[in-house]
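Attaching the record inline, Q. Sequence:
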Amino acid sequence: MIRRAYCGAQLLSGAFTLLLAACGGGGGSGSGGSNAALSVSTTSITFTAIQNGATPSTQNVAVTISGGTVYVAINSVTGTGFSPSFSITGQTSGNIVITPFPPSLAPGTYTGTVTVRGCADASCSSGDVAGSPEVINVSYTIQPLTGLAASPQSLSFGQLQGGPAPAAQILGISEISGGSYAWNASVTYQSGSGWLNINGASSASGTSLPALLSLSGSSSSTLGTLNAIVHITGNGKAIDVPVSYTVSQPQISASLPGLNFNTVNLGPVQPTQNLTLTTQGSVPVIYATSVTYAAGATGWLTVPASGTAPALRTISFTCLSRPVDAAG
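Structure, as predicted:
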């Protein structure tokens, strides 16, 4: 037998998968499993509004599953003044939108809960997975038409992991009746600590209203949502302004949906092809690659094992070798 290079007109199909190194591995497959788990980005949601004033913005709670297939649903809702809705956002993620009602109720603080359940099967006959149920506490404070007012009534910051801190935001405070007096602003943290600044410091104060405060967050590398309350007092009155800071994972994408290599029997080896990888916000993302082949030949596709995006990556076709007889 003689071995010689053979590049036939065969259909070779395969795919390479980009894996974010920060993912820490994917979930398992199948129905549930002892390793399946459910988690939510926060268990505390706070709304603040002035009676008959503007309705606060909706707030989101990210739902994540790992380790297997998990059936997720809102199991129960208590309290009044808001409504939740759940949607699937990805293969292992979902989102709960909590929508406050217009603040027409009497002044006061209304509380409730949203219970999220994750099960190993659709009927929950196998019981809950790890981390289930998760109870999200919702607080809705409706303030009277007199006293301190804040504009906007809540603030949210967003940052891509590995990216810069978001720009500062302005919070206006005033007396609804138009009066003026000395005031003080401080931060109460519901998760994390030290990540929110008021006018560049941990607290602020002034001698008269109205006033404008500059709120800024410190850059974080930890995925998830942090929550805090800016507590403003003056002349025996007080107002709380919820602030959230969400760090999300930058998405990575490829310039082409796929690549095709074509050759003929005993023809030249195909030239390499390039694929451009981009990231959300051009934030550097470490990635790893793996190659999955369909039935048949293997080893004919070469891709970089790992790297950092955004970048231009070269993918090459490796000429196959197989034994043939001497007369061939």
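The mean pLDDT is 81. The domain at 31-144 is CATH 2.60.40.2040 (Immunoglobulin-like).

More tomorrow.
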